[in-house]
Amino acid sequence: METRTQDTASFEVTPWEVRGKVDYRKLAEHFGVKLITESELEQIRKLAGGELHYLLRRGFFFAHRGLDSILQRIEKGQRWALYTGRGPSADLHLGHILPWMFAKWLCDRFGVELFFEMTDDEKFLVRDLPLEEANKYAYDNALTLIAIGFKPEQLHLIIDTEDIKYLYRIAIRVAKCLTLSTVKHTFGFTDSTNVGAVFFPTLQIAVAFLPTELYREETPVLIPAGIDQDPYFRLARDVADRLGYPKPCTIYCKFVPALTGEEKMSSSRPETAIYILDDDKTVKKKIMNALTGGQPTKELQRKLGGNPDVCVVYRYFQAYVDDDSLVSKIYNDCKSGNLICGECKLILYEHIVRLLQELRERREKAKDVLEYYRISTKFR
Ligand code: TRP
């Protein structure tokens, strides 16, 4: 199946690139993933003890593969696990941590463990990045991951180049099921792609089967991820049966837009994203310069009101502020002209800075305990 989604609306989503204005409905249809329904949301709410994570409430997590089967297992009290990951090639920005915050909620609500893969090998293979650099970022990015609040028993960290022994035996079995032609087609590789990049997908797939090996018991994973990662997991589901593993399930998140209005924050353009390690002054400057749905002048804004539905700043409220009453107040005050963009941006700034300060403080503490999170500390 083709990964590149390019049609009249002209957007493209691949594991390496997102371009254009994404139509998520079309994208879901094109990838062959299902949209999350109201009744599934209700079911999750019930199973979670009456509360739904705000990223579900607001439709950030919007599509899935096989979610129903995980919900069934929760209902029956059967074992499952979470899996997600990160290609460590740069400093983290706010967009990266959305699935991690959601995963933390799942860990807490369902008493489930998260397997997390740092693909330093991938970034070495597909980017122009020395292996040592990618590995350094793996450690750095892990600090922010831990800072989300995971306890050591909730999070098992895998660094590909160091923890390969957990994956290799699974990966070569996966590799044997995948032809060169399938991998080329799925990821858009060509004859000049290096063979490391061609083999790499087996390692991202392998982690989906690892919990079943480690627990010696059928343990399907649920994978919270950006929808751009779907090609890997489509293949994983294809080969699962043949290898005697349960099919991995996925739940996909929309992208957080760049402050400048593009579809996705991008690490390669620092001005478009808020980094976890940006100092307060930089964060303020970026937010104050963000694209809004406001009127050209204060007077017009007071008279006509703004348009939160196309406003990046409002989108950030939705993505990072849990408090529904505040978020809907922002929406209404914007529409009515009560709130002008400058004031609104300052309110957002306060919230983002609080979040970042907390993460940065916890990152410092994480430095001393990182070892406790590593898979090698917990599984032999
Ligand atoms: N390939 C992903 C990236 O470039 C990293 C990754 C590995 C991942 N395993 C994953 C992402 C599982 C989501 C889910 O960022």
Tell me what the structure shows.
With 380 residues, the chain is α/β, with parallel strands linked by helices. It folds into 2 domains: 33-254, 3-Layer(aba) Sandwich (Rossmann fold); 270-365, Tyrosyl-Transfer RNA Synthetase (Orthogonal Bundle). The protein contains 18 helices and 9 strands. The protein has helices at residues 24-31, 38-47, 54-57, 67-76, 98-110, 120-126, 131-147, 164-177, 180-187, 195-199, 201-215, 230-243, 280-288, 298-304, 312-320, 324-336, 341-373, 375-378, and strands spanning 12-14, 17-19, 34-35, 61-65, 81-86, 114-118, 155-159, 221-226, 249-253. A 7-stranded mixed beta sheet has the order 3-4-9-8-5-6-7, sandwiched between helices. It has a two-stranded antiparallel ribbon with strand order 1-2. Helix 5 (98-110) links the parallel strand 5 (81-86) and strand 6. Helix 7 (131-147) packs across helix 17 (341-373) and helix 13 crosses helix 17. The mean pLDDT is 94. The protein binds tryptophan. Tryptophan binds next to strand 5 and strand 8.
Q: What key attributes describe this structure?
A:
2 domains, 380 residues, two-stranded antiparallel sheet, Rossmann fold, 7-stranded mixed β-sheet, alpha/beta, binds tryptophan, Tyrosyl-Transfer RNA Synthetase, single chain
